[in-house]
């Protein structure tokens, strides 16, 4: 038997203990689903694809943020004990479900969306996958917005306005998109006090990302972009 | 504004990396057999190169330290905003003036 | 139970970097004030130095030297990641930084002891 402590409530609440039979190849999502279907239908949690593609099932399992559908119980419950909590740094809606609005608002605030500009090309752009820019973009575009990195980030916990690893990683993929015309506004958006400069390279985002994306290095790239933009504008001002 | 702070902190960090390496090396060497005022002032008195080096060191520190402190306060306390920025600017001025005073002291003494 | 993000070597590095910087920021004005006693002549500085020749101050000096060394090495790590796109094994890099800082401390202890 597994003993499972599940967070119940919102910001205030308590852990409720359940006993769930151990089964072969069981995932943590299987456990949560069994609890909700067989033992307590009032338990709120999220999932969708259940095969590691959508990121909806992200929550904190024994202290680490991860996808429950891709976490085998045998991998994490060494002493037969599971502790399930909602993702950190986001408002808890109920039990294991969190409010993702702030996460995606920051995505928007970081200008993490493609900007075609006033004169988008009329034909397909030719972008070689081997160029450094495209490789940098490709390294980060697989992000599905699951929120694991955001939950893991200490700076998000310390600074409510910090844009966070996912939004900044997305911004970096667009900075490297040669078709994009919005990089002036984007770099301005991510260079404030709560932008890329607030990252202190703790690297928890990189450690816990289930897609093996490294937001730390994307943010480092943004910092370099901020630096060269600042130095370039200073030297061009000096020339006039 | 804080893109500028970030740039200033990183650039001053590069200057300090060099200055600290030199300073640490010097101190490790100089403390051998104990360090007296005479030892220190014997090296620094009238030494314009040393005075120039340490003045640059002081300027870089006066830029670097307050920005770091500002980050700590903003992230670990609830305090942020203009009053904090003003206080950090004052701390920068304090470091600058105390530092230049110290450099002058060992140059003229 | 320490949260998972605090058990990362990158967090330990950032914390050590921050705390050593804080210690240095507190130390520095005192250092400047101490040196400025030379404005009253070499004897004034010597009198001050005489006061500092006790084990407690020596230990604090060692602490500050190590703090400075570790702040510099960890800062170089940050600069390498940010400016040189250095991708390292964090624990290895952190260990190297700490080792260098302790080496500096050891040399100081041997020379000043």
Keywords:
heterotrimer; A: 240 residues; alpha+beta; five-stranded mixed sheet; two-stranded antiparallel sheet; 38% helix; 14% strand; B: 109 residues; mainly alpha; 4 helices; elongated
Walk across the major sheet of chain A and give the strand order.
2-1-5-3-4
Helix fraction bin of chain A:
25-40%
Number of alpha- plus pi-helical segments of chain A = 10
**Largest sheet features of chain A:** 5 strands, mixed
Global structural class of chain C: mainly alpha
Radius of gyration of chain C (CA) equals: 17 Å
Detail the poorly predicted runs of chain A: none
What would your notes on this structure say?
The complex is a heterotrimer of chains A (240), B (109) and C (113). By secondary structure, chain A is of the alpha+beta class. Chain A has helices at 28-39, 73-76, 101-109, 132-138, 148-152, 154-158, 165-175, 183-190, 204-208, 215-239, and strands spanning 2-9, 13-20, 58-61, 64-67, 81-85, 92-94, 97-98. In chain A, the strands form two sheets. Chain A has a five-stranded mixed β-sheet. In chain A, α7 (165-175) runs antiparallel to α8 (183-190). Chain B has 109 residues and is mostly helical. Chain B has helices spanning 2-30, 37-44, 48-76, 82-108. In chain B, α1 (2-30) packs across α3 (48-76) and α3 (48-76) packs antiparallel against α4. Chain B is elongated. The mean pLDDT of chain B is 92. Chain C is mainly α and 113 residues long. Helices cover 79% and strands 0% of the residues of chain C. Chain C has four helices and no strands. Chain C has helices spanning 9-35, 42-51, 55-83, 90-112. In chain C, α1 packs across α3 and α3 runs antiparallel to α4 (90-112). Chain C is elongated. Chains in contact: A-B, A-C, B-C. The interface between B and C is large, with 36 and 37 residues.
């Amino acid at each position: 038997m597994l003993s499972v402590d599940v967070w119940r409530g919102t910001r205030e609440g308590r852990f409720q203990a359940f006993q769930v039979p151990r089964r072969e190849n069981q995932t943590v999502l299987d456990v949560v689903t069994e609890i909700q279907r067989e033992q307590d239908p009032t338990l709120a949690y999220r999932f969708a694809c259940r095969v590691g593609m959508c990121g909806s099932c992200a929550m904190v399992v024994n202290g680490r943020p991860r996808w429950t559908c891709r976490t085998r119980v045998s991998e994490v419950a060494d002493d037969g004990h599971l502790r399930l909590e909602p993702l950190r740094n986001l408002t808890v809606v109920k039990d294991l479900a969190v409010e993702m609005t702030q996460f995606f608002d920051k995505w928007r605030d970081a200008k993490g969306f493609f900007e075609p500009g006033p004169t988008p090309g009329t034909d397909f752009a030719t972008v070689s996958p081997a160029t450094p820019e495209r490789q940098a973009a490709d390294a980060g575009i697989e992000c599905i917005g699951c929120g694991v990195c955001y939950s893991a980030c200490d700076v998000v916990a310390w600074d409510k306005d910090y844009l966070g690893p996912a939004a900044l990683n997305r911004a970096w993929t667009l900075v490297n998109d040669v078709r994009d015309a919005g990089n002036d506004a984007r770099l301005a958006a991510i260079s404030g006090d709560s932008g890329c400069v607030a990252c202190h390279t703790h690297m928890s985002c990189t450690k816990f990302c289930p897609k093996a994306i490294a937001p730390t290095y994307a943010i480092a790239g943004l910092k370099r972009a901020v630096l060269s933009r600042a130095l370039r504008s200073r030297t061009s001002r000096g020339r006039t | 504004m804080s893109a500028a702070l970030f740039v200033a902190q990183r650039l001053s960090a590069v200057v300090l990396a060099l200055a600290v390496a030199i300073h640490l090396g010097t101190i490790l060497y100089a403390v051998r057999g104990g360090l007296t005022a005479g030892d220190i002032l014997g090296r620094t008195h009238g030494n314009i190169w040393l005075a120039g080096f340490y003045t640059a060191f002081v300027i870089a520190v006066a830029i670097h330290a307050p920005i770091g402190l500002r980050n700590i306060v903003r992230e670990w306390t609830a305090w942020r905003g203009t009053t904090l920025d003003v206080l950090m600017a004052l701390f920068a001025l304090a470091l600058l003036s105390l530092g230049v005073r110290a450099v002058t002291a060992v140059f003229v003494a | 139970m320490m949260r998972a993000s605090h058990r990362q070597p990158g967090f330990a590095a950032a914390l050590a970097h921050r705390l050593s910087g804080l210690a240095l920021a507190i130390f520095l004005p005192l250092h400047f004030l101490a040196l400025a006693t030379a404005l009253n002549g070499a004897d004034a500085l010597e009198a001050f130095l005489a006061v500092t020749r006790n084990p407690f101050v020596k230990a604090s000096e060692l602490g500050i030297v190590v703090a400075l060394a570790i702040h510099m090495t960890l800062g170089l790590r940050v600069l390498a990641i940010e400016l040189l796109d250095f991708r390292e094994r964090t624990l290895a890099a952190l260990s190297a930084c700490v080792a260098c800082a302790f080496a500096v401390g050891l040399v100081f202890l041997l020379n000043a002891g």
